[in-house]
Each structure stands twice: as C-alpha cells, then as structure tokens.
Design goal:
alpha+beta, nine-stranded antiparallel β-sheet, about 35% helix, globular, disordered N terminus, disordered C terminus, transcription regulation, START domain-containing protein, coiled coil, nucleus
C-alpha cells in the first residue's frame, strides 16, 4: 500500500517513468521544503536590507551642494510608482471629503498636507519676459528626442516633510524653562551692552562685531552646554536696531505664529513650523510661552545652501519697561532624534527686544548668533556669507521694516486714487496675489526643500544652475518645469540696477526680454516710503497686428538696504478680474520670473549716486580684483531667474535642447543688461578715473579697499 500510494504521487507529478524510490523521494521532498524555507527567509532578509538601503540613499547629502545626492537617472519602475502613488493619494483625499460630508466629522488626508506655499509653478510659459506656450513642434522634439540628447536632473520634492518628530518630554519641560530664562538673560545683555562684548572692526567697515573671548567669559554656561572641538565651526554674530511701523503686540503675535512669521520674512524663511507648545500661560497671555520650532532660512540663490534648525522660542513681557523680548535657543541637553543639518547650523541664543513707540511704531533691537559650518558656497557669495551679511541681523531688520510698510499699505482704507482698481477690497486682493508671487519666486530660486541644482560646466567661475520640478497638483499646469538661475557681479550701484530693471520703459530696451513688445502701466499700488516699493499691473502692447488675447503683467518691485527684487509674471485679464471681484486668488496660476540685486560694500546706501561708472572702468576694477583673488568691494550681485514649462507630461525626460535654449537666453539677458547700463553710464567717466586710480593700486598690493580705514 505504501508503495502504491507513492506511485500515485509520481503519477500526479508526471514522474511515472522515474524509478520508484519512496524513501529517497520522501527525504528529498523534506530537504526541498527546508531549502525553500531558508530561501524565503533569505529573500525576506534581502528585501528588508533593500528597503533600508533605499532609505539611506534617500538621505544622502551631496558634498558639493548640500542637497540630496544625485544617484543617476530615475528608473522607469520608480516613475510609475510615483505616478500611481500620486493617483492613490488623490483618490484617498477625495474619499476623505466624501466621508466628511456624509458623517459630519472631519477625516484628515493621508500624509503631510500639501503646503500652498511650495514652489509649484502654474503657467505654461516659455522663456521670454512675456512668455508664450511651447508650440506643437517643441513638444514633438521633447518627446521624440533620442536618449543621447536627454539630460537627467534632480527633481524638486513634491511633499518634503519636516525632519524629525521628537518632542520635549514632560520631565524635560522644567529644564527647558530654566534654559529659556538663562537664554533670555543672555540675549538681553547682548542687546544692551557695548564694549568689550561688542567691538568695532576695521574689516567690517566699522560695524559692531562680537568679541568671542569676552562672550565665552560672560556666558560660560551657554558655551559649555555642548562643547565642540576648537575651530570646528565658525561663530557668526551680528546686531542691529531699527524702527518699524508695527506695534509690539502685533509683532509678538507674528513671531509666535509660524505662518505669520513666514509672511513677515518671505524672502528669508522658506518654511517654518511650530512642532510643540511646551508651555503657555493659562490666561492665554503670550508672555511666558515656550514653543519647539523648526525653520529653514535661505539666501535667494542656489549657490548658497539653506540653513535648517530646530530650536526653542521663548517670549517674555517686561511691563515696567514696556518691552517684549523673543529669544531662540538650541536643543542642547534634550533627548531628540533630529538629524544635524548639512551644512551644520545651530542657533545660539538669538532674538530681539521690541520697544513700543508712539503712533504704532516699535523700536526693534535684533541679535543673530549661530554656530555654522561653511558648506559648499560659491566664491561669488563667500564674502557676503562669511561677513554675516547674508544671514545677519541687518538683513532680518531691513526686510522686517519693508514688510511692515507693506502690511500697513495692505490694511490702508483711506485710499483716494485707485485708478482702474474698483475698490479697496480689490486692491487688497491684488496685493495678496503679488505677495504669493514673491513667495513662490523666493522658494523657486534657492535650495530650500532639498531642491538640487545642476551646474552646466565644470568651471568654478560658472554660476549658471538649472533644476526641474514635476508639477501634478490641481490649479497648476501638469508638466515638467525647467528653472535656470545665474548670478553675475556688475560694476554698478545697487540702486542704479534696481531702478533700471523695475522701470518697464527702460526694460523694454532689452530685446531678449521684451520680444519687441512694450508695456503700459494700468494700475499702481505704493507699498512704502521708497518709491521703488510698489506693485504694478502692466498691459502688454504687442508690436505686430496680432489676434492673440490681451495679456497683462503683474509686477512687484521691492528694495531695502539688504537688497532688491523685481518679480513679474504674465497673467490673463479674466484672472485679474476674478481677483478684483473678491474671489479666492489662490487658484490663479503664477510662474514668476525676476531679478535679485544684492549690494556689495558701501553701495547699500540707497541715496548715494556717486558710484555710477563706465564699462571701461568696470573692466579695470574687475581685473584688479581678480589679481587680488576676490570680488571688488563695490557694485552689486545680479541674480537672474527664468522658468519654462518644458513639457506637459510630468514624467517626461528633459530635452538637452531646452537646457541649451534657456542657458542661451539667460546669458543674453545678463549681457544686454550689462551693455545697456554701461552705455547709460558713459557721462560719468570723470568719476570713474578717480575711482579706478584708488582701487587698482590697492588691489595690486593684495589689499582690500576700505574707505573707512585709517592709517
């Protein structure tokens, strides 16, 4: 019977022709089962190891740019998974809405919510100033280009979460409050004290700098909280004072609300979030509140890595002196799993004192103090960063002053001359639309959210960087957005370049930007005391007899001592009408282009007009500075940013010809700006000879020019 049953097994297996060896077969089957079990276990182990390695690879940072490392071309399977994941998430979000409608209970969507302030593009624009859509032939070239004419670029992450998820434990809250009080005392002293804690340095043109030795002597507890090896990181400390048109209560409320804080500093803070309210007053008073926060701050260029930090923010009110104080201090001494940022950045106790003044004004004294690691910063920005100008207190206060004036203009109700704007509400809506344009532009031009940029050449002098973003969310054109940014030193004063670029009539001289068209201003909104701080609605006057629909340009220009921006985008009449009628302007698609101008040296005095020079003198100064191995200490840095919808298919590969075209357009833009400014400056050649004679000899001796230096 036993033999017969095994024979049936052989029949079932189609092995009747094999010899009947029941004992050997039984042993072999058992061995096969054991082998299969071992292989399955090994397979599971390999799967887990694969997942772990994939997670590790996603967190690798590029040593050159600080962004996610570029690990070759994205595979087809990964693209399909991303598309499927986006579809499933959209389906899940739609089901959440349906469930909420029928049950009356809110149901939250999966994963982190999409931030409406992410740099998502929204108009099908070409690379001109008043762009057009790619025509059919362009799309055919894009989609049929052979593989050897494709270029692989990093993508902008669609939903970048806030890193880390640790909170301050209950048993740690008393320690957090003790450190908050100590840090507050430190910042108050740093705000009020002069020498020897702060000294004037010849290297910074007489500005106050922190005496590190005196600081370590006065605040030894702060230095010893977490000691690093000597000279491992650089100390960066700055202080400044300014008067702003906003009362202290409103300012404090903005500092304690992450969204309002970002709104106050749209060009500095790329993202911020309150992770935990560690302590708050029972009565709801802001004084005594302690919050765990995350922030990423930026310079408006892909050539400077962003800085990320987790920190605690503490607020205190001194009723006797009529002041409020805000202090940020690091998470040293707490149990947390927040990964260190790259490049390394830690906020030492920093903050501000806000003193109420008459008529709704406030005097703000600001201290910015950090431990930093100089990461992969391009040489064109190295002096601005190392001197503390790029991330220092002066920049924070300059932007705060300008934004407070803008908010005052936004809230104004006694506007007599509105022009074509039908009502104060329509004016406010248009200002909010322009604010979103500025915010989007600021995010699209930096390395925030882990955005990686690619250099087009191996030259260290090359400043052109390009990147791509896949846009799939509603309200924006689905497709692949190509961005290109370049920074160039110009031998012209900050104000001269700003006034030229913000004036639509002078900008029409740039053929590469005007496409033969002219602009006419149909609406104007003043944003502050500086005439250059304004919002304009411009009508495009097409040069030829064209049947195309009327298009408008929304432009905002803003300037302060830290720098200037001119940002604009084309927009159709229907969208403007919708905004002015009080409808939600957040759905209006925007794809801004623009310029950032940063002053160098003493040119940040906006009323000074003596540094306008000619091309010949500029070349002499540049050559002398090159011999000295550094940028000149005058002039400005001009950053130009262009964007284009390269394909309507988000997963499309980038065509090399598109990269070549936008790079060519970018270079032509800079060359034409330089040429037009040079031609307009020829009448100042007398001033040039004096300036060149002063600059060139010192540069030849390898000595930086310092107009405030004394012999």
């Amino acid at each position: 019977m036993a033999h017969g049953s095994h024979e049936e097994d052989y029949i079932n297996l189609g092995l009747l022709s094999m010899p009947a060896l029941p004992l050997i077969y039984a042993d072999g089957a058992q061995q096969d089962r054991q082998d299969n079990a071992v292989l399955r276990a090994e397979n599971e182990s390999l799967k887990n190891e694969n997942y772990r390695l994939q997670a590790t690879l996603r967190n690798i940072a590029c040593p050159n740019c600080g962004g996610p490392a570029m690990l070759g071309e994205m595979g087809f399977d990964e693209q399909q998974l991303r598309i499927e994941n986006a579809r499933l998430k959209e389906e899940f979000d739609r089901m959440c809405c349906l469930v909420s409608q029928y049950t009356g209970r809110p149901m939250h969507p999966m994963g982190p919510p999409s931030d409406p302030l992410l740099p998502h593009s929204s108009l099908d624009l070409d690379i001109g100033s008043y762009p057009r859509k790619f025509d059919h032939q362009d799309h055919m070239i894009m989609n049929n280009c052979p593989p050897d004419h494709m270029i692989s670029l990093p993508f902008m992450p669609e939903n970048s979460p806030f890193p880390g998820n640790s909170l301050i434990l209950e048993e740690e809250k008393s320690l957090a409050l003790e450190l908050a009080v100590s840090s507050m005392d430190e910042v108050l002293k740093m705000c009020h004290m002069g020498e020897p804690l702060w000294v004037r340095a010849k290297e910074t043109a007489g500005k106050m700098v922190l005496n590190v030795e005196e600081y370590e002597r006065m605040f030894s507890w702060s230095v010893n909280v977490k000691q690093h090896p000597p000279h491992e990181y650089r100390t960066e400390a700055t202080r400044d004072t300014a008067v702003v048109i906003m009362n202290s209560i409103t300012l404090v409320d903005a500092f304690l609300d992450a969204n309002k804080w970002m709104e106050l500093f749209p060009s500095i803070i790329s993202r911020a979030k309150t992770l935990q309210v560690v302590h708050s007053d029972v009565s709801g008073d802001a004084s005594g509140s302690l919050q765990l926060m995350y922030a990423e701050i930026q310079v408006l260029s892909p050539l400077v890595p962003t800085r990320e930090a987790h920190f605690l923010r503490y607020c205190q009110h001194n009723a006797d002196e009529g002041t409020w104080a805000i202090v940020d201090f690091p998470l040293d001494g707490f149990q947390n799993d927040y990964p260190p940022s790259f490049p390394y950045y830690k906020r030492r106790p920093s903050g501000c004192i806000i003193q109420d003044m008459p008529n709704g004004y406030s005097r703000v004294t600001w201290v910015e103090h950090a431990e930093v690691e100089d990461g992969p910063i391009h040489q064109v920005f190295s002096n601005l960063v190392s001197s503390g100008v790029a991330f220092g207190a002066q920049r924070w206060l300059a932007v705060l002053q300008r934004q407070c004036e803008r908010l005052a203009s936004l809230m104004a109700r006694n506007i007599s001359d509105l022009g074509v704007i039908p009502s104060p509400e329509a004016r406010k809506s248009l200002m909010n639309l322009a604010q979103r344009m500025i915010r989007t532009f600021s995010l699209n031009i930096s390395t925030c959210y882990g955005q990686s940029w690619t250099a087009l050449s191996d030259s260290g002098d090359d400043t052109v960087r390009i990147t791509t973003r896949k846009v799939t969310e509603p309200g924006q054109p689905n497709g692949l957005i190509l961005s290109a940014v370049s920074t160039t030193w110009l031998p012209y004063q900050h104000k001269q370049v700003f006034d030229f670029l913000r004036d639509e009539r002078s900008r029409a001289q740039l053929e590469v930007l005007s496409n033969g068209n002219s602009l006419h201003e149909v609406a104007h909104i003043a944003n502050g005391s500086n005439p250059g701080n304004c919002i304009s609605l411009l009508r495009i006057n097409v040069a030829s007899n064209s049947s195309q629909s009327v298009e408008l340009v929304l432009q905002e220009s803003c300037s302060d001592d830290s720098g200037s921006m001119v940002v604009y985008t084309t927009i159709d009449v229907d969208a403007i009408q919708m905004a002015m009628n009080g409808e939600d302007p957040s759905c209006i698609p925007l794809l801004p282009l623009g310029f950032v101008i940063v002053p160098i040296g003493q040119t940040n005095n906006m009323n000074d007009s003596t540094n306008i020079i000619s091309n010949e003198a500029a070349n002499t100064i540049k050559q002398a500075s090159d011999n000295a191995g550094q940028l000149p200490d005058s002039g400005c840095l001009l950053t130009v940013s262009l964007q284009v919808l390269a394909s309507t298919i988000p997963s499309a590969k980038l065509n090399l010809s598109s990269v070549t075209a936008i790079n060519h357009h970018l270079c032509n833009t800079v060359q034409q700006i330089n040429a037009v400014l040079g031609n307009s400056s020829l009448n100042f050649s007398d001033n040039v000879n004096v300036l060149v004679s002063n600059v060139a000899p010192e540069a030849a001796q390898d000595k930086p020019t310092d107009p405030n230096s004394t012999s």
